[in-house]
Amino acid sequence: DRQGRNPRWLQAISQDVVPMRISELSWFTHEHGNRVKNRVAKDPAIGSISNCAACHKGAERGHYDDD
Q1: Cα–Cα distance list, 63 to 11, 17, 44 (Å)
Q2: For residues 33-42, average pLDDT
Q3: Alpha carbon distance 7, 31 (integer Å)
Q4: According to DSSP H, which parts of 1-67 are helical?
């Protein structure tokens, strides 16, 4: 987070697990559900699920909060 702490979702990952894709993490599925996959499928301009900036305007700066 902005105070230099690991976010809660990162703290929840076991230290012996090395996730290859953020989209495989349970919190990602919980937060985004199928709506991200559906949006990517409907809009070829997005390209892929890895284009976080398509939905998160602050993604380039590491800001993903929608609030």
Answers
A1: 18, 24, 24
A2: 90
A3: 14
A4: 8-11, 26-32, 35-42
Q: What is the pLDDT of residues 5-23, one digit of tens each?
A: 666 767 777 788 787 888 8
Phi-psi category of residue 21: left, alpha or beta, with phi > 0 → left and psi -120 to 50 → alpha? beta
Q: Which two tokens stand for residue 31?
A: 């937060």
Inter-residue contact 25 to 9 (CB < 8 Å): yes
Using a CB cutoff of 8 Å and minimum separation of 24, what contacts does 26-31 make? Answer: none
- To the question of pTM greater than 0.85 for the whole model, the response is no
Rg, the chain, Cα only: 13
